[in-house]
Design brief:
alpha+beta, Glutaredoxin, Neuraminidase, 4-stranded antiparallel beta sheet, elongated
């Protein structure tokens, strides 16, 4: 009787251990996965069998409808970017036949995915790998052997890092979590964080009716989001009526304002100019004031210019007085935008003589 009670206690303890012990995962299969039948998002089919073209591959089973895929997709893209020049390529696989190429493409584009994603509508690749969830990752070597299988995130990153360095991968198998491949979620709207790109082309110079020639346009975004376009124009280059024109496109609008004359001086006309937004949300205008004694011929006078400056603290609505730029030499003209250094200083390219 005592022996029976002792055996009963032993079986009870063993049974308790079997229930509460953590799951034990076996190592990935040693044999290569072999050629894989894949389908592009356009519906074209081919057999993938170029494993030896790279040192490693990361196959991730994904779904545009899976919350866990959504949660980890940006980290997967970051991992891809980290190793894509290190002969390790990430490949996405969707084994849900209900998810069309259009749906997967929208998901990939709107989440910034820049690695290829293929469809596996018959589930052949999932069966070959033994994949059951999304997202679920498989790290393969150049022979097509699975070296790691399981969770994405930190476990996958550690496995790829060890593989890349030639170290042993430990653990080789981890537990993936997510949505069952054979129980996909229903479709949902995939939000677009990038918005819509609008492109338009128009000539705003021709709306400055009192000028026949226009040169050296420059543009900046004001602190409030307005676009400001600046250029010089007149009857001809170096003419007495040469002026600086400014046109504004308000934030959110599609049309430009009528060009207005910003600076005009028939005795010392403005020439090449720059407009840019600098420190403390100030809009800057730099231009070359033509100081040559008039009359002068067309196209001349550029060697006798003074670099001038004015700024605006209200998005180009009002301006400070025009003052010479703190520059010892007169013969200088702006053309290219300044470069802001890490120190916060601006490096201003100038051209001229003397």
């Amino acid at each position: 009787m005592k022996s029976f009670q002792w055996c009963r206690k032993l079986f009870l303890v063993l049974g308790l251990w079997i229930v509460t012990a953590p799951p034990i995962y076996s190592d990935p299969p040693a044999s290569p996965v072999g050629p894989l039948p894949v389908e592009t998002l356009d519906g074209d089919k081919f057999t993938m069998d170029n494993f030896d073209s790279r040192e490693g591959w990361v196959f991730v089973f994904v779904s545009a409808r899976c919350p866990e895929t959504e949660k980890h997709i940006r980290d997967l893209e970051a991992l891809h970017e980290k190793y894509r020049f290190e002969k390790i390529l990430m490949v996405g696989v969707c084994s849900n036949p209900a998810e069309s190429g259009k749906e997967l493409r929208a998901f990939a584009q709107r989440r910034g995915v820049r690695f290829p994603i293929y469809r596996d509508p018959e589930g052949e690749i999932a069966k070959r790998f033994g994949a059951a969830l999304t997202p679920e990752a498989f790290l393969l070597d150049g022979n097509g052997n699975i070296r790691y299988h399981g969770a994405v995130g930190q476990p996958l990153e550690a496995a790829v890092e060890a593989f890349h360095r030639g170290n042993n991968i430990r653990p080789k198998v981890t537990e993936a979590t997510g949505t069952a491949i054979d129980q996909p979620a229903p479709p949902h709207e995939i939000d677009d964080p990038y918005g819509v790109i609008h492109f338009s082309s128009e000539l705003i110079f021709e709306r400055a009716g009192d000028a026949a020639a226009h040169h050296c346009s420059t543009i900046t975004e004001a602190p409030n989001g307005d676009l400001l376009c600046l250029w010089y124009g007149g009857s001809y280059e170096s003419a007495d009526d040469q002026s600086l024109y400014l046109s504004r496109r308000k934030k959110g609008e599609r049309t430009w304002s009528e060009p207005e004359i910003l600076i005009r001086n028939s005795l010392r006309p403005p020439g090449n100019a720059l407009i840019f937004t600098g420190p403390q949300d100030r809009v800057w205008v730099l231009w070359g004031r033509m100081d040559a004694v008039r009359p002068i011929r067309r196209g001349s006078g550029w060697t006798e210019c003074t670099l001038m400056v004015r700024t605006s603290s209200d998005n180009g609505m009002t301006w400070t007085e025009d003052t010479p730029f703190p520059w010892e030499k007169r013969r200088a003209l702006p053309r290219n935008l300044p470069i802001q250094l890490k120190s916060g200083d601006f490096l201003l390219p100038l051209t001229g003589e003397g």
